[in-house]
Specification:
Number of strands: 16
Strand order of the largest sheet: 13-12-16-15-14
Helix content: 40-55%
Radius of gyration: 44 Å
Strand content: 5-15%
Number of helices: 20
Shape: elongated
């Protein structure tokens, strides 16, 4: 079942989850981090370290809310609860839970008491190595990555499961819910051997979100009592070494006792466990300082050491309290199963070399092993690529070199002049086209103030309060050049960039064309004026000849008329 994953929309491809995942159970596909469920041990380190809040955790909250309205719900509360808030009294947390609707609340430490007795029996067994099985993430680690040591794992259920079995006997019709700081518990309740014992799991972070949703003020809640309590022996389980301290530490001393916390340290130990010669009792916890620092309690304002202190204070407050007596007999044994995965197994050398070459790793010198991709070495990354767990371009130096090469190619080959300045107008980039345009060598102006070096200040045209870009013409008087200028201010990097396109020739050609047009217009005007004068003169001459013709015709008409009268 998918318990933990990442939001595709929120994932920013920073690879931090891959770097932090101790078992590399995260793959990158289509620029999106995905957890491989069959490889995940549920330690929650990726959730705690994701800087973009891209986590998605399977939640039973909505289902539990419905149960509270229609069913009897019994809550098993981890001893870690005093670390959730700075409260005036730890048991105000019970007041919060009752305000949320939980009426029957018992301490999970009741189940821890049962397991403690069983651990004591295993301590005295003939097994060379006994590894405690209370931490669900460590149980997953051994089943998946160290199955050869599965026989060393104690065949005891966790305190959560033990208490769940007890509650099943006491409240057969109820829904059993567990609340704690562990994400691996959400996985554990679905294990074949214990499925159906716990109906739902809440983390303290989920409860915190629920509290905020209901507008509950934790410090205003009353101090409440548990319906049933355990002992300080069980309450110590969430602290590193707490299990051994109260279950096997005071036995006959026939075994050496080891206490290890943190997944990386546990894995380092498991890698060397074959070297142990004597009989050992081994207590391992995935979380540093134990369950008090589980990834389901990230909202807590307490530091990990304050959490230990807070839990110890609660234990001291309960040192004289008698545990509840009504604890039914249960079978605390369970079995475990090997679940090995390839986990970046061996890769043919020729395939490894091919992938390394595609990553521009042609020699050992090219293998920087910087770890920015999330893998310790370039070869580990290449193996991940082979197993489809990683993408080729996760290599930051490779991306950087490609980006720089492309940028340099563009800047070098573009015919346009480019100048990049820092916030104090000092030149930090000046390409070859800029050298030609401004008639200045790059080495002569680099790191110098642009205005001082070139006696030109186009960037005054930028108004960074109203806009970051200016486009228009500029005139560089020193060389008598005219530019089309594209000026930009980049506030995130506090950089100025100018692109200068030499349009001097075009401007001259346009000016020459304008001059020709003006001269043509003048010539046309002169022709028109001359034509008008000629037309005027012609009109005058035509007027004179027309008048003479009219006089002549009049005289002729009179002569003709007089002759006709005489006849």
């Amino acid at each position: 079942m998918s318990i933990i994953n990442f939001s595709k929309d929120k994932c920013r491809n920073c690879y931090k989850c891959i770097r932090k995942c101790p078992v590399k159970a995260i793959k990158l596909k289509d620029k999106h981090a995905q957890i491989i469920q069959s490889m995940c041990i549920g330690c929650g380190i990726c959730i705690a370290t994701c800087p973009h809040n891209a986590k998605e955790i399977h939640s039973d909250v909505d289902t539990i809310k419905k149960w509270l309205k229609t069913e009897q719900v019994v809550l098993s509360l981890s001893a870690v609860f005093p670390t959730a808030y700075y409260l005036n009294h730890p048991r105000q947390y019970l007041g919060i839970l009752r305000e949320l609707g939980f009426t029957i609340i018992e301490e999970t430490s009741i189940g821890a008491e049962v397991v403690t007795k069983a651990y004591a029996d295993e301590y005295c067994s003939d097994k060379k190595l006994v590894i405690s099985s209370s931490c669900a993430a460590i149980k997953n680690l051994i089943e998946i990555y160290y199955p050869q040591y599965l026989s060393a794992l104690s065949h005891q259920v966790s305190p959560m499961i033990a208490h769940g079995k007890i509650l099943r006997e006491k409240y057969p019709e109820a829904k059993i819910v567990y609340a704690g700081s562990c994400l691996a518990k959400k996985m554990e309740v679905h294990d074949t051997d214990v499925r159906g014992i716990i109906d739902g799991v809440l983390t303290f972070d989920e409860i915190d979100a629920w509290i905020k949703e209901e507008h509950i003020d934790p410090n205003k809640m009353p101090i409440e009592e548990f319906n049933a309590i355990g002992t300080n022996t069980g309450r110590l389980y969430p602290i590193t070494g707490g299990l051994a301290k109260n279950s096997v530490e005071n036995l006959d001393g026939s075994r050496k006792i080891l206490r290890i916390d943190g997944v990386k340290d546990c894995m380092a130990f498991m890698d060397e466990i074959h070297q142990l010669e004597k009989k050992y009792w081994i207590e391992m916890n995935a979380c540093e300082e134990g369950c008090v620092n589980g990834p389901g309690n990230l909202h807590s304002p307490l530091s990990k050491y304050e959490k230990v202190e807070m839990l110890q204070t609660y234990i001291d407050l309960n040192s004289n309290k008698e545990p509840s007596n009504e604890i039914p007999e249960i079978n605390s044994r369970r079995s475990f199963h090997k679940r090995p995965v390839h986990h970046l197994g061996e890769v043919p050398e020729e395939e490894l070399e091919r992938i390394l070459n595609q990553m521009s790793k042609f020699t050992e010198r090219d293998e920087l092993n910087c770890g920015t991709c999330g893998y310790e070495t370039c070869r580990d990354k290449a193996r991940a690529v082979y197993w489809n767990m990683a993408e080729m371009d996760m290599c930051l130096p490779l991306i950087t070199s490609k980006t720089e090469a492309i940028s340099n190619l563009i800047i070098t080959t573009t015919p346009n002049a480019i100048a990049v300045l820092d916030k104090k107008f000092r030149i930090i980039e000046f390409n070859a086209a800029a050298e030609r345009l401004f008639n200045m060598k790059k080495e002569a102006v680099m790191r110098y103030n642009f205005v001082d070096a070139l006696d030109y200040n186009p960037f005054r045209k930028l108004d960074n309060n109203r806009g970051n870009t200016y486009t228009g013409k500029g005139h560089y008087e020193k060389e008598n050049r005219i530019f089309m200028e594209i000026l930009t201010y980049i506030p995130e990097q506090e950089l100025y960039m100018g692109i200068f396109i030499d349009i001097t020739r075009q401007e001259k050609q346009e000016q020459e064309m304008l001059n020709i047009q003006e001269e043509t217009l003048k010539m046309a005007q002169r022709v028109i004026d001359k034509q008008m004068r000629v037309a005027h003169e012609i009109a005058g001459l035509l007027g004179e000849t027309t008048a003479e013709t009219k006089v002549t015709l009049t005289k002729l008409q009179k002569v003709v008329t007089s002759r006709e009268v005489e006849r």
